[in-house]
Amino acid sequence: MDLDPASLEGKTTREVLHELIEYVVKSEEEMDEKTTRSGDQTDLNIYICDNEGYEIGDLNQWVTHLAESDKVSGHAGNYVANHTFNEEVADDDISLVSITTPAKGREDEFVFVTNDGYLWVLTTIHSDWREKTIENFLKYLPCVERLYLSADNLEDLTERIRDSRISGFTAKYHAPNRERDATLTFSGAEPGDLRKAEETFDAKPTRIEFDQKNSPDTAIQGANTNKGRLTMRSVRDGSEPKAVETLLGLTEGYQELDRQSFSVELPPTHDNLENGFAVDGFTAVELTDPDRDDAEDLIAELKQNVLNGNQYRYGIRDSGRKVRVFDTEYSETFDVAVEGPNIILYARDTTTALSLRSFVRKVYDKLDSTYSLSKSQNPVAIK
Q1: Which range has the worst mean pLDDT, 19-33, 193-207, 270-284, 356-370?
Q2: Which residues contact 259 (CB under 8 A, 6 or more apart)?
Q3: In the chain, what percentage of residues exceed pLDDT 90?
Q4: What is the distance of C-alpha 344 from the center of its chain?
């Protein structure tokens, strides 16, 4: 991108999206070429993050925190030491951020947008440099967390796109009781291919590509991933307004589905009574129905695959059936209980979606990709 911060001043989110979509507009001839999905082309990517404290204009403050805080990991410190950062504020909720990698002579640009409890980061840089720059920065920032969707919710999100079809996908399978891992990548997918992958291999989609029509030809090509990133790959010249509507619908849908899975709307609160106390509020995130009927020592599997490393401190409770977990990255506590092969996360009074989402993502990535995800909550009182 080569943006002037002044070009973003006074613009709505819709107008910012329209300006950035111009980077992926294609002519009719280019849209018809088979090379449209080439990995070398320019894509517009949007990272959607839960935002618990990042404000436009605060970039230097957070970079200093990552460089100097004793609570920050060595990886984060090294990352900050190897890059320089700059933020030019365009408006109260929009800024242009640059991350420079001196060793490579690169400067990459990103548009930051804060929006009703969320941080959006928009960029057109190539995937290799996204990972080395902005993805690491978002990973190390303690006040933000990229949203996350289960496989079912990712499919739900994609099915909401009007006039569209699934044109490709990546689906993965891994489970501790099986000797095989599988990653299936389909380009030019036919109707039913994703369902076949799920039924045959129990592989769950982590990325779904779509083609969207605009009377009558394919006008928009994009992709949704389960880790808080949307991609707009190609927009036929003249279809920019529809592409903006699609992106706005996808971001809103992504945020809605993530809230349904992780938002702690009823945290437990303690009230002291004359003869004891009452606990009001109950929120549980449930990982159920994996590709196995039982787990002999699921707590040990969690300790080995999820709770290992520096992010968590924990203690075993209830005769080995429950774990009290402290997330050092977010300074939050929650409980993890096991019921057969199922894993239940119980929010405590300090718990937010940040720590619940992070733990669930690690379970899917490091332990078992076959779990189903749901949330239950109730304003119960336990006396």
Answers
A1: 270-284
A2: 353
A3: 73
A4: 21
Strand pairing category for 25-26 and 229-236 = parallel
Residue 203 burial (CB < 10 Å; 0-12/13-18/19+)?
buried
Which DSSP string corresponds to 263-285? --SS--EEEEETTEEEEEEEEEE
- Which tokens belong to 162? 């009007």
**For the domain bounded by 269-378, which CATH number is listed?**
3.30.310
Pairing of strands 25-26, 44-51: unpaired
3-state SS, residue 40: coil
pTM of the model: 0.92
What is the band of 36 on the pLDDT scale with cuts at 50, 70, 90? very low
Extract the tokens encoding 13.
């989110």
Amino acid letter for position 72: V
List pLDDT tens digits, range 48-78. 999 999 999 999 999 999 999 877 778 899 9
- Four-CA torsion 379, 354, 116, 16, nearest 10 degrees: -150
> Tell me: the pLDDT tens digits for 116-175?
999 999 999 988 899 999 999 999 999 999 999 999 999 999 999 999 999 999 999 988
Which amino acid would we find at residue 275?
N
Residues in the chain: 383
Mean pLDDT of the chain: 91
* Dihedral of the alpha carbons of 330, 354, 376, 46, in degrees to the nearest 10: -170
Q: How far apart are CA 344 and CA 289, in angstroms?
A: 12
- Token pair 């891994």 in the structure block, residue: 174
Domain ranges in the chain?
Answer: 5-146, 269-378
Strands (DSSP E) contained in 141-217 are 144-146, 164-173, 182-187, 204-213
Q: What distance in Å separates the CA atoms of residue 129 and residue 83, rounded to the nearest whole number?
A: 13
Q: What is the pLDDT of residue 3?
A: 87
| Residues 322, 336 contacting (CB under 8 angstroms) | yes
**Letter for the amino acid at 56?**
I
- Distance separating alpha carbons of residues 31 and 328, to the nearest angstrom: 48
Structure tokens at 109: 């640009």
Task: Reply yes or no on whether the pLDDT at 285 is more than 80.
Answer: yes
**Residue 148 has what DSSP assignment?**
-
**E strand map for 11-105:** 25-26, 44-51, 84-91, 94-101
